[in-house]
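Here comes just one.
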Amino acid sequence: MSDTSQGTGGLSYDKSKRQWPNELNVFGALILIVLIFEILGAIFVGQSLLFDTNDRFDSIFNEARLRIIIIQVAIVGIIALGVTQVIITAGIDLSSGSVLGATAMIAMSFAQISEVNGGPNPKAIFGPALQDLPWLVPVIVGLCCGIVAGIMNGILVAFARIPPFIATLGMMLFARGVAQWWSSGNPVSFPTEAYAKIGAGMMPVIIFLSLAVLFHLIMNYTIYGKHTYAIGSNEAAARMSGINVPRHLILVYAIAGMLAGLSAVILTSKNLTAQSGMGLSYELDAIAMAVIGGVSLFGGRGSIIGTVIGALIIGVITSGFTFLRLGAFYQEMVLGCIIVGAVALDQWQQQRAAAKA
């Protein structure tokens, strides 16, 4: 017999149905993966992945590798914050990587300096009137490009009733075409010094973590977050409860597009150039971060914290395979298995919860 206690109004509470927060499960997976790499490193490399075994730092950690891990996932992690919200609505966004590529080309065009080594900028897209602009101009242009792409996705999903997979797949192809068309496939380079500072050093990580905190609060303590979860759990019920589902879906996709545009600004600032191939497969990495972080592909469940931990898991795996001097193809195979396993686990948990209900 299950252990129950009486609550207000005679309702009973069954302790056997208590569950750990999903974020703790994901964090446990992160710790397990770190331990596996530590053991493999001790056996095959004779070094530690995350700890300093050579007294090179003031702390016990390998600060250089930790810095690399969090920097390499920060930009895709920003995209993942938007993708997480889309998936919670039971949607999907396959266009974020291509939107990043197109936005990178356009935003960098407004961030160029007029002179390089005493002569005119050889990579200039516009004339002198649109060169040496304040850093805020290309940032706003980048955010607006992402928002427009997101709104188009939202309209196709909410009003045209096109499945999110098809709508965002079309946007993925369209945006990649825009990226290649913008400068005939040529790189756009030489940004202003102020623009270059946006992605310098640890700024991508600071922006990523700040946005993660912001959207964690929004998703948990605002009407926007409650409506997002409600739509993903049961869209028909959400409509009947008075939620303007089409308008909210457009807002969710617009936010996802805006974050893709912001990632483009940070990436071009960090690399000091924009190329039409930027962001290739970033959408898959962002979806992987969300899914590994416990976001259900069936909608209605997931969290920003889980996505952040999922991003760290991918960062540890990427750095760990490099640390063990293994090819990138092994990393892709392992990530594929982890993603399939995460979705299978999610299905099993849903079936188990339905059986208990």
Observations:
- The first helix runs from residue 22 to 45.
- The mean pLDDT is 91.
